[in-house]
Amino acid sequence: MFKFRSSIFRFLVVAVVLLAIVHFYISVPVEDTYQSTWDWRLESHNDDACSLFSGLERVVITVKTGATESLKRIPTQLQTSLRCAPHVYVFSDMAQMIGETQVYDALDTIPTEVTEGNSDFDIYRKQQELGDPAKVPSVLRDFKDPRNPEALAAWTLDKYKSLHVVEKAWALQPDMDWYFHIDADTYVIWSSLISWIQRLDAQKESFIGSLSYIVGKPFAHGGSGLLLSNAATRNLVVTHNGTAASWDYKMHENCCGDWVLAQVLNDYGIKLMNSWPTLNGETPDTIPFASDHWCQPVVTLHHITPTEAERFGKFEQRRENKSAPVLYAEIFKDLLFDTIPDELADWDNMAKDEAVSNITSVEGCIEACANNSDCFQSLYTGDECSLGTKNFRFGEKHAPEGNKKWQSSWNRTRIAAWVSKQTPCNSVAFPFQE
Ligand SMILES: *[C@@H]1O[C@H](CO)[C@@H](O)[C@H](O)[C@H]1NC(C)=O
Ligand SMILES: *[C@@H]1O[C@H](CO)[C@@H](O)[C@H](O)[C@H]1NC(C)=O
Ligand SMILES: *[C@@H]1O[C@H](CO)[C@@H](O)[C@H](O)[C@H]1NC(C)=O
Ligand SMILES: *[C@@H]1O[C@H](CO)[C@@H](O)[C@H](O)[C@H]1NC(C)=O
Ligand SMILES: *[C@@H]1O[C@H](CO)[C@@H](O)[C@H](O)[C@H]1NC(C)=O
């Protein structure tokens, strides 16, 4: 019997590790180093533009990051997406100052019983030995590359933070209406969040996020943002005081912080309210556009690099009505459409709805798209021609692999015709609005 249980246990541990690796690849895109072109230190936090963005005085934002990425990501995030946020707390695996922002160590109460001899904490110890958070990104720079096993270590450590962040945010700013927990590569669209929060009731126990599954159990994907009401947070932090401390001992054999948070809330009687695609895990470039989402509001974007955060920040600044919620339709029409060319080499536009056989050239693939009146875009990889007929998207760079080369094309005329055919988005409906 014991043997049976232990082999099941071993299976579960292996499954959790594999899922962790998959989740990791989804969560951490490889990215070039980036130097901001904005001098965020000189800009004032509450500029006039923020007067349009009031109404979230009782909302706390927490950002979860790590010392290997914090300096690269946090400044731009604070200056773009979060520039008008009244209460932002940044939690990491090492305390530091970034400009005037205090970054807290989310792991500082975890007892040595848990950390000692636990390889999940190797990177934590290395960072502590280095002492200076500014040195961490250069000395441990390879931690961000998923091909490097040490990168997985940085990500593995991350799971220990989630419950502590919920508790620490309450301790720093107790009894607020909403706590919105995001990652350092999440972009919150402030005007959309304002409109949404106004339509929600903080006195209901609400746990709002983007639904995902691991080992058959639902959870809210952390990078898309986790919105917890006052009542839900109170239940976890006050009614069940000591939750994070008791889970410290159990995190090692669990996959992910966001997954554990969902199981804990479920144990306390709080069910996840799925708010995808308003809380969204894609970047503007990887969102598939189609009629189902077209008029839906967007509150978060994910995998947003500092370059993309600046691009999106500028898009927000040039909007005609800056306080209206941003809809998918607007992102496509006013941010993306002009950037989409007719053809692009070494690019994956993710067309995959229909495979066309016997195509031996890009030109043939483009012709196959032209011949199919539903086709918005095509992708030729040297051995396959795929058409995008159900939706369209820009996609992302994809360097050649051996003989395989990614060549994307779009039919802009057809996409434009589709766009102009959509009925205008008149009334905006948010998920779970009162
Ligand atoms: C949790 O319990 C501790 C110890 O009794 C107490 O000091 C702390 O204030 C409690 N925290 C909350 C949020 O109620
Ligand atoms: C701008 O958007 C806000 C929020 O949706 C709305 O109340 C307001 O009427 C809009 N202003 C204009 C000029 O359309
Ligand atoms: C593809 O080409 C092969 C060989 O030329 C031919 O036998 C086959 O019928 C073609 N298939 C289609 C779907 O045209
Ligand atoms: C496209 O349609 C034309 C005209 O019907 C036909 O000659 C051509 O073979 C088709 N091309 C492809 C790739 O399907
Ligand atoms: C794009 O679609 C239009 C309308 O169906 C068609 O006339 C045109 O040939 C297509 N363009 C390309 C480059 O395939």
Features:
single chain, 434 residues, alpha+beta, 8-stranded mixed β-sheet, 5-stranded antiparallel β-sheet, 19 strands, globular, disordered N terminus, binds 2-acetamido-2-deoxy-beta-D-glucopyranose, Fringe-like_glycosylTrfase, nucleotide binding, nucleotide-binding
Structure, explained:
The strands form five sheets. Strands 3-4-2-1-5-10-7-11 form an eight-stranded mixed beta sheet, sandwiched between helices. The protein is α+β, with helices and mostly antiparallel strands and 434 residues long. A hairpin with a 2-residue loop joins strand 3 (96-98) and strand 4 (101-105). Helix content is 35%, strand content 16%. It has helices at 2-27, 70-79, 112-115, 122-130, 136-139, 149-158, 162-172, 190-197, 230-239, 243-248, 257-267, 306-317, 328-336, 362-371, 412-421, and strands at 59-64, 87-92, 96-98, 101-105, 178-183, 187-188, 207-209, 211-214, 217-220, 226-229, 272-274, 300-301, 343-345, 347-348, 354-356, 377-380, 385-388, 396-397, 407-410. Bound molecules: 2-acetamido-2-deoxy-beta-D-glucopyranose (NAG) (5 copies). One 2-acetamido-2-deoxy-beta-D-glucopyranose binds at residues 364, 367-368, 371.
